[in-house]
Write a structure and sequence with these properties.
Elements lengths: L9 H4 L1 E4 L16 E6 L3 E2 L11 H14 L5 E6 L2 E6 L1 H9 L4 E6 L4 H14 L5 H13 L5 H8 L3 H9 L5 H8 L5 H7 L5 H13 L4 H15 L8 H12 L2 H14 L3 E5 L4 E5 L4 H11 L1
Helix pairs in contact: 2-3, 4-5, 5-7, 6-7, 9-11, 11-12, 11-13
Amino acid sequence: MKTAALGKGLQSLFSIQNDAPLKDYETDEMYNIDKVYIISTNQIISNENRLRKNFNEEKMEELKQSILKHGLLVPILVKQNGDNYQIISGERRYRAIKELNLDTILVRILNLGQEETIEVALTDNMQREDLNYIEIAEALTILVQKYKLTQETIAEALSIHRSSVSNFMRLMELPEKVKEKIRENKLSPTAARMLLTIQNEEEQIIAMNECIKNNWTIADLENYIKTCKKYANNLDDNDSGDNKVKKKKTLSKNQFYQDIETHLGNKFKTKVTLKQLKDKCKIEIEYYDDEDLKRILGAIQ
């Protein structure tokens, strides 16, 4: 039988009980319990509502190699579920132990309600930077919507600013395609929140794709969004009523011209605007003085 190796000095840090009866732990102060147990992996139940949804294969392999070399240094957090124990935090460590065909695992047992379970799982994972931003946002949303906790209460419990809670939760307003890129760490949460300033979901996705494809900075994305908005609102002052609405809708969807404006603006380091008039179109390139004009002409040549 393979047994999970313990890290060096671990017994001096925890009160470890191998195959110990687990009845006495219920009388302890569970939130701060310092007892650690070694139990069979067959007694562990995955949490279907776990915060972590994605597991990076490369990082999983690194974790497995670390466990083989140093042992499982940090016990997983569990709560009793009948004769078994459901994971609160530590799904990735549990999976690594199972993939290594080890038969026992180090656990810390907590006696928590569902609301506290989410809070502890969230805190534990955030402290170890185990969750992506969407997983955190989903957990915070559950605490607010299902358990009616205020953002202030959550912020205090997690020792973070209330604005951080709000910023995380705003990510849930994004289209699923955008959230998936955040999960994959291809889009930063700051860039994602900027996409929320775009009203149309289709245009949010277009802007996201451009940002990722061109490896834009936040400033590049901000410039792109501002240009799109100005172009969409660049209506003939003489237009009114249904004609104005129709023209605005047409302009806002003309992504081809928006991309050209962004490309030329980045190339010339100034604002470039494409205007569609009644009987012609024109390109406007802004410059500030003669030296700036010479610079732009040099870029064109």
